[in-house]
Amino acid sequence: MRTPPILKIEDLRTYFYSRSKQAFIRSVDGVSLEMAKGETLGIVGESGSGKSITALSILGLISAGPGVISGKIGFQSDRIQKDLLQDLGDFVKLTTRDGKIMEVTKDVVGWERNAERTMSEVRGKEIAMTFQNPKSSFNPFTSVGKQITEAIRLHTSIKTEQGAKERALAWLDRVKIDSPRLRFDNYPYGLSGGMCQRAMIAMALASEPSFLIADEPTTGLDATIQSKIVDLLVELKSELGITTMLISHDISIISRLSDSLAVMYGGTVFECGPAKQILSTGSESKHPYTSALLTSIPSAENIKKKGYLQAIEGDVLDTINIPEGCRFYSRCNRVTEKIRDKCARQEPDLREIEKGHKLRCWLYFD
Amino acid sequence: MKKYSQISGEISEFSDLPFWKKADVVDLVYVGYGLLIVALVVVSYILGSFNLLPRDPQDIDLHLMMAPPGTAGRLLGTDFMGRDMLSRLIVGIQAYFLPGLLAILIALCFGTGLGVLAGYRGEKFDTGITYFTNLVDSFPRLVLILLVIAAFKPNIYYIMLVVGLTNVPVISSLVKGKIQFLKQKNFIEADIALGLPTRIIIFKHILWHHCRSLLIIQATLGMAEAILMETSLSYLGFGVQEPTPSWGNMVQSGANYFMQGKFWPSTAPALAILFTILGLHLLGDGLNNILEGKRNT
Amino acid sequence: MKLSAIRPIALVLSRELMITVLLLLGVSFVVFIILFASPGDPFSVLLEGQLSTAEAKTGVREAMGVPRSWYIQYLTWLAGMLSGNFGTSIRMGLPVLPEVLRVGFSTLILTIGSLMITLLIAVPIALYSAVRGTNKLSWPLTMSSYVISALPVFWFGYIVIYFFTHELGLFPIAFGFSTAGQKYRWLYQLLPIFVLGVGNGTISEVIRFLRQEMGRVMAEDYIRSARAKGASIWKHAFKEGLLIPVTEIIASKIPFILGGAVIVEQVFNWPGMGRMAWQAAQDRDYPVIMGIAILAAVFVRLGSLFQSVVYVAVNPRASKE
Amino acid sequence: MTKTILEVIDLKKHFTHRKGLFSFFKEQQQSIPAVDGASFYLKENETLGLVGESGCGKTTIGRTILRLEKPTSGKIIFDGKDITSIPTDQLRQLRSQMQMIFQDLDAALNPKMHVRDILSEAITVHHRISDAEVDKRISDLLEQVKLKKSKLSSFPHELSGGEKRRVSVARVLSVGAKFIVADEPTSALDVSIQAQVVNLLRQLQNQIGLSYLFISHDLRVVELISHKVAVMYLGKIVEIGLSDRIASKARHPYTHILWSSLLEKQSKETEQKAKSVRAGRWGVFDFERPTAGCRFAPRCPVYESRGKPTICTDAASEPRLKDLGGAHQVACHFPL
Asked: Is the pTM of the predicted complex or chain greater than 0.95?
């Protein structure tokens, strides 16, 4: 029996508003995900697919535009059990026209105050997050060590400065930073990119969360450093068994780390299921977008034959004017005659075609 | 309660709505009011210089002293010598209009020149120019002008020359900052790599495309600065002397009659100063928000 | 502030001091050049009526050291200045330095006081609109700040005087220190400070600058990660969002406020540096105006020294450069 | 035999870092050797990949060749002419043949100009031609880079990542470039768009016979697109060779580590085998001051496993590029 889900996102919508085009930017347009305890979910998607916005919406860090406007995020850990978007409905009024949300009235200040109250004992204590550019995610005016002890004293039983420093040094050693005592007093600008990323992982884990979100942990780092960070994450995963949501646009990193996988495009989940099954080259039942993504990376035989890459034409979907029908229809190369009009006009929903493997494409339905 | 609504139908691909549609209402109000004031000042300057005034500002009418506005056809009443307030206010603009333009011109030319030199040529001139700008900034403006007055007993044009010079550091640092921003985004390198001659890069790409709005804003703020300086100097008795009117000395001479409860002779020119400078400040800030600032997609 | 941070600060402080000395040298040179290049002879004004004979005039000029070539004059003047002798005031006949210092001190109080008032008004407004963003209350606030900063300060001064003397009847009509023993003497001190604080024409700029800086810092990555950590945003944002912008404003606005002081001292005939400068400009009293210009420049440089010290103390990266 | 279009001999570029206002008094100039003696050649219609970690000077080499930075020493021979120190006006004529694609997508696109003006300005910069010809030239360019005509009247900030890159390629072609320095053209793009741009660059190479200096830290793309690959470490070229030889049979330890860190090559099972090579103090990558001799020594597993031979670290015997046959050169005393 699968353990009860630690996190259950239902139909999450996060919109922004472009004043110059008088239209909504529908970054997250109805995302539903589920994560069991101890599992690592890898979210893959290109820029503009809404993966980072989903993570930020979970922690309620969206500040611009209408922000989170609908959905439910059920979070359950051994300490607390609550819906992170409690009574969002009281603050937001939506008017839809033929299925699309056209107008949003939101009491921004009221929702802000409510969100702070519900999230105060979740942020940092239950859910911790690491960010993409490590160097700018640290306060440049205080030393790295002090920022870690701050997290420790906020969320763990250790309240004394000395105790927190000991714990912080243990964590710095744990993430294999060289000479932790020296690095403790360093300022963020004194550390290299790789080391800042390790320090941020240490800071996140030091507050003993039950759920870790790693947003693009390896982007912007060199290839060699990337592989070191991934090794570290693999070790921490096997040792701590902490549930992790790993977000990246690099499929190879996701394949090494995650148990289950979700492919996002244009603000929705196109496919989710066990990583091994989806990413293995053999199995045929894959969403056209996922298989196209896998082939557009130069693989061994591509390089040997110096052949052209099998690129997907067209551009990444801009989430302002979303076409009716499937979002990938304009770029999809596996549209058959039978389903062409359905693809063009009616958006497929996320249906389970195999045990635990969901898909959003007419090709595999009926 | 914030409301966001999307227009139905096809959303246009191009987002370049004319800038007045994109700007928020507040900025439009600022700019509108500012332009109104500027138009008023320019028109009155032209009227003043061709002497097309409602009344002769000099003729004294003793039994109409300090009449409130509207008496005997004098729209804004009379001052303590019975002279028509409106015409004196219009002629008062002569005192600062041309000198103000001179100050702006000097500030823009030297400021842009130094800014481009420091930004584009970089290392060679950088220390020299920063030293000069810090040096000029060290003097409080009015003290420097008093020094010049003590030395040269100059007329208003020399004083405005000094005001223009003291505005140079502000403009040169803004232009230098803009160029360094462009260098950081390596726009300039892309142009050099393309083989564009330097003069096109500097004048068309840097100054015309990127510094144009910045210089307009500094011009309006520079004019406000010049007006404030001229009126303060004439208040201190250094600018235009009685009986030729300047807003500064009108406020000063009117102030003696506060004790008798007569406020209008001093308040009218003060309000004129207030609305003009307010208009210029709002114009500058409104343009800044529309052209430069809050660029939300 | 750990001990290890002291050394880099001392390093930067010494560099800033050297720059300040260089700049003051430049200031003295500019002041000298302006007066040296002046067309009229500095003493023609004073000596018009009194000494008709030519030798007497040359005698006085000799005493003032005028005939030698300009750079020797500059060096002697500079040497004299460094040893505290700013020359003697033509009008008052008193040595300039003690006079200017006595008067300079009271202008310092006026400047610092009005700076505090400007900040007391500007910081809350900027904080409020940075946190709340634009809503129905922030519009009138910004509009009134624009109106206040466009106010001609001398008219505002007269209105305030009128209000206090007539309506509240607090002060006698004649002003100045001569009204010793007055009951509300301390209130009298505050009045010009209040007027200059409100009317020095920089309030709208200060508010815009502070709000812009706060907005920028609020959007920084490390604030977002502080929120994600559950830490208080204000503790993290204080240094870059409030402390540095405020010191920057203080250093950049001191020249404007000193300029405004000249006018306010004239309105309240408050015996300050500005009033003396005005008097010296009237009588073309060179040594006094030169002394005042240099002292004013010293004030401005002290302000920017203070700003760079705070910047280095707070920002570790700057001290390493 | 195809002609060599570019030859670089012992190019050096040192950045002098001046300390504050008084540096020219105290001559306290600390010079950082960004590029320390790089020499290679590039044939026409060929692509040379340049790989290395960030900070190893690969971008600096590209900019120095195009004289966007002043070279400290060494020679650059472009199309047979030595352009190391020719005056700028002559250089400007040559600029039309050698061009650069910048890493930042917005670099070449002035945000205040429409795409049409950007292209027409580039076309008319070197030779005045009539408007009709300009329009024809623009439509040819759009064909070449496969960009929709409707995009001509939009501003750069309205374009997507892929479109911005296509416009900057069109801008480079419009001047009639023969040799292009492509500085990380694909790193700012998504995977699917990246593939399109890679295909575009290769099609242009076949159609017009362009030659590329392809700078990137994405090893897979470099391997695919380039005929020869040069690997750089801390300002020095440590290995040059045909791209498949470099990937499979690397002779320099650093190259081997670079390629072995490519993740998808390592499925979970073979992880242990690769562990042995990457022993040594590899975990920490820090820009320690370059020691004398081979700069890679402090982090080189071969140097560790051979008991720290002194030949590697004394200044006299600094490893130089030795030819191992088959156009494969390596700068190491103990090639793998």
From this structure: no
